């Protein structure tokens, strides 16, 4: 089986694309999704967040939710809103958010290569979220949320991408969040074969975002093998978009904490000086390098510069900025040893800006906020190559891949 393969995509008729396209299922809560989909019967949210079509208060994990998603998917197919390509294709997908542009290949990725770690991971998954995606894929008999993959950029792939992007797009639209989405169809055999072979020569791919979706796809494939489905079925692949590493945009993932672990503000700042140089600043601090952090406390911004001897150069996880903050401040000073479960800490994606950190502290909800330097793509790859995992909430990718542009049916 090749690392990446073409597939018969299920996608909107061009006239309906703007109506269908929706944010990823996991960036909206139920109420936000219900509001977004109001008066929009063709919105993909009726498939990805189908609890919006059930009574308020319905548990999102209720079996009726998955059944409703499947019913809504079949409705859009019956109505001709969604159509399926007659032959396997690749698709070129470009996202533009402000000045940032990234262009990736929509393909299906090999479950076998995921299982063997040729498609590499950097995060743990949560059983409840993984179970949810297994039930969703199985009920729909389709994968509707793409896994965001990245690869070390390749000049030959770049040349093909440039050539395809010079043609006529099948979709060219701006979603309601301002992100521009463009999709091209790749259906000629020569280009398909060239892309398949180029990716198959790569040592590995990396999961940037979508660990639960890929883990669920692996479980569904194993389930279907156990049910006697042939080992070369569509379930042996999962929906993905692969972007070159030099185009991927990782934002900071910041922290806010509810209290100072029993310390007064002055004692807390004094305690930091064992590991950091602490400087008061007149404006918000956006770190410019690894080992540098911003801190907002009692209406005042500080620049925290970690002493260089505290940065482990050979530990791919320990040298991450999220790890440095945890091991030198969050755990020893604030007493938070398990950020996955401790309710005293919360996380704020960099897309919200530093003003959101000030807002959370000024409101009294939180006592202190920390801004971080973004995790670099080379660090993500180093962690995955070492078969290690990152701390929770280490990366925030923007722009987000849309749901509904292309889905993968498992037959």
Report the mean per-residue pLDDT as an integer: 96
Distance between the termini: 17 Å
Major sheet = 9 strands, mixed
**Number of folding domains?**
2
- The radius of gyration is 23 Å
Low-confidence stretches: none
Main traits of this protein?
411 residues; alpha+beta; Conserved hypothetical protein from pyrococcus furiosus pfu- 392566-001, domain 2; 13 helices; 25% strand
What do you see in this structure?
Helix content is 31%, strand content 25%. By secondary structure, it is an alpha+beta fold. The chain has two domains: 4-249 and 398-409, no CATH class; 253-373, Conserved hypothetical protein from pyrococcus furiosus pfu- 392566-001, domain 2 (2-Layer Sandwich). Strand 4 and strand 5 form a beta hairpin. Helix 4 packs parallel to helix 6 (127-140) and helix 6 packs across helix 9. The longest helix is centred in the first third of the chain and has 16 residues, at 63-78. The chain starts with a strand and ends with a strand.
Summarize the structure.
The chain is α+β, with helices and mostly antiparallel strands. The chain is 31% helix and 25% strand.
């Amino acid at each position: 089986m090749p690392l990446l393969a073409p597939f018969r995509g299920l996608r909107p008729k061009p006239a309906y694309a703007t109506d269908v396209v929706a944010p990823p299922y996991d960036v909206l809560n139920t109420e936000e999704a219900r509001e977004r989909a109001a008066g929009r019967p063709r919105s993909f949210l009726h498939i990805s967040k189908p609890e919006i079509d059930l009574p308020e208060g319905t548990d999102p994990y209720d079996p009726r939710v998955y059944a409703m998603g499947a019913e809504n998917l079949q409705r859009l197919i019956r109505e001709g809103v969604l159509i399926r390509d007659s032959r396997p294709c690749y698709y070129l997908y470009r996202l533009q958010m402000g000045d940032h542009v990234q262009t990736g290949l929509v393909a299906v990725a090999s479950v076998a290569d995921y299982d063997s770690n040729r498609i590499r991971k950097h995060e743990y998954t949560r059983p409840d979220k993984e179970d949810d995606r297994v039930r969703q894929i199985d009920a729909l008999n389709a994968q509707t949320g793409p896994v965001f993959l990245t690869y070390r950029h390749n000049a030959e792939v770049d040349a093909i991408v440039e050539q395809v992007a010079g043609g006529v797009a099948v979709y060219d639209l701006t979603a309601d969040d301002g992100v521009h989405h463009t999709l091209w169809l790749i259906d000629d055999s020569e280009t398909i074969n060239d892309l398949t072979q180029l990716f198959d020569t790569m040592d590995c791919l990396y999961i940037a975002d979508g660990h639960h979706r890929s883990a669920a796809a692996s479980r569904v494939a194993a389930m279907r093998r156990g049910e006697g489905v042939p080992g070369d079925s569509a379930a042996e692949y999962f929906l993905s978009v692969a972007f070159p590493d030099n185009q991927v945009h990782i934002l900071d993932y910041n922290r806010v904490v509810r209290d100072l672990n029993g310390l007064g503000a002055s004692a807390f700042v004094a305690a930091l000086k064992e590991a950091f140089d602490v400087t008061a600043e007149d404006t918000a601090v956006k770190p410019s390098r690894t080992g540098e952090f911003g801190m907002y406390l009692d209406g005042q911004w500080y620049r925290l510069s970690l002493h260089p001897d505290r940065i482990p150069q050979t530990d791919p996880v320990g040298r991450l900025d999220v790890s440095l903050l945890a091991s030198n401040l969050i755990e020893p000073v604030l007493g938070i040893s398990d950020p996955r479960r401790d309710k005293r800490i919360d996380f704020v994606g960099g897309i919200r800006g530093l003003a959101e950190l000030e807002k959370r502290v000024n409101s009294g909800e939180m006592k202190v906020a920390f801004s971080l330097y973004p995790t670099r793509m080379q660090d993500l790859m180093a962690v995955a190559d070492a078969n290690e995992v990152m701390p929770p909430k280490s990366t925030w990718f923007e722009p987000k891949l849309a749901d509904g542009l292309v889905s993968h049916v498992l037959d």
